[in-house]
């Protein structure tokens, strides 16, 4: 597809009202009814729907000789992708004098505080729940998404994560880049020599322990019993993002009415307690590192040195696992080329194993169900405090183009939200894209109340993890676990309504 240069302009210094932004603030911009798009060949065409809020903000000619402060993901910066992105963008727009630079800010900045003071970025890359919290309080601009190159390639489920209803109209406040959710990472070269005989019951050439959690539980237990310094599956339970997926798999949810009603807390609903039981059983084959952040922070090195067989994390850290494994092979005497080849062959990122319908990992021959996971859609948004909305929109269009998303996928291992890029990025990306459409990825709510789920959730899951190492169990059965989930849900409700 031909790449387009979006032509947009600042007409004056009029404050934009809340009707003109998902973002609040002194947007120091005026709008006009004209909407033009300038192609690479210089051809100008007038767009329709000139009265829409988005098009009033983003209309006219590109600002010239401006610098855009772009806030990016730390991994994208450290792995060199961001430098490639801004170099390519700056080359394309050099005749306009538009330069994108690293905002050099903490990726978890608070735009609501920094934006009004003039310290926020012009463009930011974040998860949908973060961006939409800003959108609710009017710190983010709505986008004319139909003008974006990626528009027709993004599934509705991904666009939905960035939608906000204001005065009866729906605005879209972000442009999706990639799907974030839990993936299983494991070392193929740490499989037992006899795995095809003893750990492939359906003879499909896929190890049982990466296909279902019952086999992973059994394998983890046996691996540790054979060598007390080795473990099978290892993951910190205190991470609400990853732990909650086990609850969702059995009917739990975050908020009611499709994640729009925070008065209905769903973490204890339906058969969610079965997921809590699974987590408790998994903790029993780990060590006490699962109580805090220890496993989360050392998983890269411990998978690389063979201490851990498997863990779960997000797709965008594949490159970090890969680099650590390459270093491990080199330390054991392999050349750089040999180490890279072995890492490519042996580091596997795949779907999460299936769960037993019963919620009991010790059950033999269980009926299996899909494992759901919490997820998010990471993407770009434009600050309502920028002085250069038109140039910012050009940057977002460029950064979400097929070529740049494919480069991001190859560099970082992300799962693209673009359908064409997902298809061309391989089986893993295509699988995640399918999971999103099937509903096996539970997207974080795009309302600010989601910020209140993390601390109560972490508190409960830490307590549940501790139970595996207590002589006097606090959660000896499902009834006590159910009570714990209900208490957690009540704490979330109180944080939203009583303590705010």
Structure description:
It is a single chain. With 500 residues, the chain is α+β, with helices and mostly antiparallel strands. Helix content is 39%, strand content 16%. The chain has helices at 53-57, 74-78, 81-92, 111-114, 128-136, 156-160, 195-198, 213-226, 240-248, 256-259, 272-283, 294-304, 318-331, 336-346, 389-399, 402-412, 419-424, 427-438, 454-467, 478-497; strands at residues 4-5, 36-39, 44-46, 66-71, 98-102, 123-127, 163-166, 169-172, 175-181, 183-187, 231-233, 261-265, 308-313, 347-350, 355-356, 368-369, 373-382, 415-416, 441-443. A hairpin with a 2-residue loop joins strand 7 (163-166) and strand 8 (169-172). Helix 9 (240-248) crosses helix 11 (272-283) and helix 11 (272-283) crosses helix 19. The chain is globular, with a radius of gyration of 24 Å. The N and C termini lie far apart (49 Å).
Quick structural overview:
By secondary structure, this protein is of the alpha+beta class. It has helices at 53-57, 74-78, 81-92, 111-114, 128-136, 156-160, 195-198, 213-226, 240-248, 256-259, 272-283, 294-304, 318-331, 336-346, 389-399, 402-412, 419-424, 427-438, 454-467, 478-497; strands spanning 4-5, 36-39, 44-46, 66-71, 98-102, 123-127, 163-166, 169-172, 175-181, 183-187, 231-233, 261-265, 308-313, 347-350, 355-356, 368-369, 373-382, 415-416, 441-443. Helix 13 (318-331) crosses helix 14 and helix 19 runs antiparallel to helix 20.
């Amino acid at each position: 597809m031909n790449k387009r240069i979006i032509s947009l302009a600042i007409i004056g210094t009029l404050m934009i009202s809340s009707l003109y932004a998902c973002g609040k603030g002194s947007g120091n911009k005026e709008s006009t009814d004209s909407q033009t798009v300038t192609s690479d060949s210089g051809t100008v065409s007038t767009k329709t729907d000139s009265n829409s809020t988005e098009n009033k903000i983003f209309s006219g000619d590109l600002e010239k000789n401006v610098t855009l402060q772009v806030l990016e993901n730390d991994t994208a910066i450290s792995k060199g992708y961001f430098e490639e992105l801004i170099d390519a963008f700056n080359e394309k727009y050099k005749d306009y004098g538009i330069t994108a630079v690293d905002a050099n800010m903490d990726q978890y900045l608070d735009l609501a505080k920094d934006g009004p003071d003039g310290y926020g970025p012009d463009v930011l890359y974040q998860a949908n729940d973060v961006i939409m919290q800003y959108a609710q309080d009017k710190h983010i601009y709505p986008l004319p998404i139909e003008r974006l190159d990626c528009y027709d390639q993004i599934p509705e489920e991904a666009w939905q994560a960035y939608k906000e209803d204001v005065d009866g109209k729906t605005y879209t406040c972000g442009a999706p880049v990639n799907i974030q959710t839990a993936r299983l990472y494991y070392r193929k070269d740490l499989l037992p020599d006899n795995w095809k005989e003893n750990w492939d019951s359906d003879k499909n050439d896929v190890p049982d322990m990466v296909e279902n959690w019952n086999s992973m539980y059994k394998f983890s237990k046996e691996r540790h019993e054979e060598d007390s310094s080795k473990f099978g599956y290892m993951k910190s339970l205190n991470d609400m993002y990853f732990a909650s997926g086990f609850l969702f798999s059995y009917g739990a949810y975050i908020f009611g009415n499709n994640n729009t009603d925070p008065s209905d807390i769903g973490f204890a609903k339906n058969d969610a307690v079965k997921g809590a039981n699974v987590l408790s059983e998994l903790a029993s084959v780990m060590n006490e590192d699962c109580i805090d952040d220890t496993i989360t922070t050392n998983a890269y090195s411990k998978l690389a040195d063979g201490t851990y067989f498997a863990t779960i994390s997000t797709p965008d850290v594949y490159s970090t696992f890969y680099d650590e494994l390459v270093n491990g092979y080199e330390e054991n005497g392999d050349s750089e080329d040999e180490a890279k080849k072995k890492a490519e062959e042996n580091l596997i990122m795949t779907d999460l194993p299936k769960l037993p319908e019963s919620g009991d990992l010790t059950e033999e021959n269980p009926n299996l169900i899909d494992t759901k996971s919490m997820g998010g859609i990471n993407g770009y948004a434009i600050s309502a405090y920028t002085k250069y909305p038109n140039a910012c929109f050009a940057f977002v269009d460029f950064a979400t183009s097929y070529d740049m998303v494919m480069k991001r996928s190859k560099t970082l291992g992300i799962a693209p939200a673009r359908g064409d890029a997902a298809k061309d990025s391989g089986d893993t990306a295509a699988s995640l894209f399918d999971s999103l459409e099937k509903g096996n990825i539970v997207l974080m709510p795009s309302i600010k109340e989601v910020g209140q789920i993390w601390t109560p959730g972490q508190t409960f899951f830490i307590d549940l993890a501790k139970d595996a190492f207590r002589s006097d169990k606090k959660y000896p059965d499902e009834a006590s676990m159910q009570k714990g989930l209900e208490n957690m849900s009540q704490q979330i409700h109180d944080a939203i309504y009583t303590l705010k």
